[in-house]
Amino acid sequence: MQGRFHLYEGYSLCKVTFPVRIFKLLGVETLIVTNASGGLCPDFKVGDIMLIKDHINLPGFAGQHPLCGPNDERFGIRFPCMSDAYNKDLRKLALEISQELNYTNFVREGVYCMVSGPNFETIAEARMLQILGCDSVGMSTVPEVTVAKHCGLRVFGLSLITNKVSLDYSREEKVNHEEVLEISKMRAEHLQMMVNTLIARAHLLDEGINVN
Ligand SMILES: O=P(O)(O)O[C@H]1O[C@H](CO)[C@@H](O)[C@H]1O
């Protein structure tokens, strides 16, 4: 996909995730998601690439969930398991690839949290998310991943840390979308290289071939 639909743009989560079901019907087996997010983990730097290990579906907690409503059994079961949302083998492979590409000083792993946006977080909200165990925060991705898991797709995700989230009332810097776009451009080639290499190698996992 070139870009995506967001909840904050006014689309329902059913519409936001519709492309994922189209992928499923087209025979797609693996969904690779990328996004931009704000870093909450104190160890993260702007420009880091975070392999998404897990997520927190904050809108889902409040009933904004793409699978609410009658379950469409053609795609998946009523109560899908999400404890293995981000495929372990693909994450391991991505870590190996980041070592080979010499990217280790800016590749991390962490938990992504979705908020609805469109405003960036208040300091109290950011502190709460950090206490909840979130390493980064953004306004997308989780609905698509949830629907992908529901219909049995394998998922891999990368989140680019485009800014540090303000956690301190004395911090002068203000988060803004221009910074998000600028950092995304700066890291675009690295991200492309990681995704291209992963795609080239991922089929070896399916064939049970040792990729080392
Ligand atoms: O669409 P993604 O990559 O998640 O981008 C993130 O960056 C935008 C805010 O700057 C929001 O859309 C947020 O979700």
Question: Care to describe what's here?
Answer:
With 212 residues, the chain is of the alpha/beta class. The chain has a single domain, classed as Nucleoside phosphorylase domain (Rossmann fold, 3-Layer(aba) Sandwich), CATH 3.40.50. It has helices at residues 13-26, 58-61, 88-100, 123-131, 142-150, 177-206, and strands at residues 30-39, 49-57, 107-114, 136-138, 154-164. Helix 4 (123-131) links the parallel strand 3 (107-114) and strand 4. The longest helix is centred in the C-terminal third of the chain and has 30 residues, at 177-206. The protein is globular, with a radius of gyration of 17 Å. The two termini are 30 Å apart. 1-O-phosphono-alpha-D-ribofuranose (R1P) binds at residues 6, 35-36, 117, 138-141, 177, 180.
